[in-house]
Design goal:
Layout: E1 10-14, H1 20-28, E2 33-38, H2 41-53, E3 59-63, E4 76-81, H3 91-100, E5 102-114, H4 119-130, H5 140-152, H6 158-163, H7 171-181, E6 189-190, H8 192-201, E7 204-209, H9 229-234, H10 240-250, E8 256-263, H11 278-282, H12 295-307, H13 332-338, H14 345-349
Parallel strand pairs: 1-2, 1-4, 2-3, 4-5, 5-6
Antiparallel strand pairs: 5-8, 7-8
Helix pairs in contact: 5-7
Length: 362
């Protein structure tokens, strides 16, 4: 609902590892200070060197547990806790610790493993626990045994059919994937109700799923505008929590229950873009993510708006990940309304840089 000026903001990366995500956060939030914590001293040292190498000197890293966050004496605008919470023994303590160092209007990004989507892997973990492969910290030998076991099963056997997609020609990667799936110590799965229960227990307010566009219950139906009568009568009354639960029960495609949350407070009325009127569109200003703020992107964006086409490739942008981006086309009704920006597009995108942050990373 607003564009944040990231200059001077304080961002925390919990479980930062070797600093890959910390670097992404620094690039996406110009002028922000990055603080990272992790239990591994070696990882912290590499994270520190990584950001210094890329010129982000306003950053600091600490070997610290999540429960000890208050000892930093800092309050953060944004806390990123990616691929960490589902491994911790006490989820509530972790959420409470992050909440204690979150500014009043700050946002936490966290995620949990989906118990439904990863159910086959949890069965595999029970199997290998029974075989004694998870008594200590699994290593290469245990990974090789797990890989050989699943590979030796008939292709139509349920466990192999639902978990085996490894390329055995890539030995290091295969072992790593086996350790992260078949032999992941402390791995726990959660349902949507359990995710909300954890947030409620920590007195945190759910904002939305991170990839919220991919959690639209209506998208699961062949004809969203022609639902069965029962759904037509009841759909509008279904709370968001239940919609998300229904989505996962029907189509459990997401490995992560990836969410944003904040301090509990009085609900703020949010106005959807779908409710905008002509006057709102006339005043609209297009905001571009800092990483995409370049002349080639500006030129291609103007072209796609003029031609009513999706922005399919950003290969001209020097992204650090080896992948191009595809921005999905807006549904037709919204696309027609988006066309109201066309007559203003050159005013909005030309001249001095009007590019600024347009991402919930803050």
């Amino acid at each position: 609902q607003q564009v944040i000026d990231t200059n001077g903001k304080l961002i925390l990366d919990v479980g930062c590892g070797t600093g890959y995500m910390a670097l992404a956060l620094a690039e996406a939030n110009p002028g922000a200070k990055i603080v990272g914590i992790d239990l591994s001293e070696a990882s912290i040292d590499l994270a520190r060197k990584r950001l210094q190498y890329h010129g982000f000197v306003d950053s600091e890293f600490h070997t610290l547990s999540i429960e000890d966050l208050p000892s930093l004496g800092l309050q953060f605008d944004y806390i990123n806790c990616d691929e960490t919470l589902y491994l911790l023994p006490d989820l509530n303590a972790a959420l409470q610790a992050m909440k204690s160092v979150l500014k009043p209007n700050g946002i936490i990004r966290g995620n949990l493993h989906s118990a439904i989507q990863r159910q086959p892997y949890y069965r595999a973990q029970k199997l290998f626990r029974m075989l004694g492969l998870m008594e200590g910290q699994p290593g290469d030998m245990e990974a090789e045994i797990a890989i050989a076991t699943v590979k030796s099963l008939k292709e139509n056997i349920d466990l192999r059919a639902k978990t085996w997609d490894l390329d055995v020609s890539k030995a290091p990667e295969v072992k790593s994937e086996a350790l992260m799936n078949y032999l992941l110590q402390g791995d726990k799965g959660f349902t949507i109700p359990e995710m909300f229960a954890a947030l409620d227990a920590a007195d945190l307010e759910f904002l939305s799923m991170v990839n919220w566009r991919q959690w639209d219950l209506l998208d699961l139906f062949k004809e969203p505008d022609n639902l069965p009568v029962f759904w037509q009568l009841s759909f509008s009354e279904v709370p968001l929590r239940e919609r998300l639960q229904l989505f996962e029960l029907i189509h459990s495609q997401h490995r992560l229950l990836d969410f944003w949350c904040t301090h509990s407070s009085e609900p703020v009325e949010m106005r959807s873009v779908a409710d905008w009127e002509d006057a709102d569109w006339d005043r609209a200003i297009v905001q571009i993510h800092p990483i995409l703020s370049s002349e080639p992107i500006k030129s291609e964006l103007l072209s796609t708006v003029a031609q009513y086409k999706p922005l399919r490739s950003l290969n001209m942008c020097r992204l650090r990940r080896d992948r191009s981006l595809k921005l999905r086309p807006i549904r037709r009704p919204a696309c027609c309304r988006f066309g109201r920006l066309l007559k203003h597009s050159r005013r909005l995108l030309s001249g001095g840089s009007r590019f600024s942050l347009s991402t919930p990373s803050l």
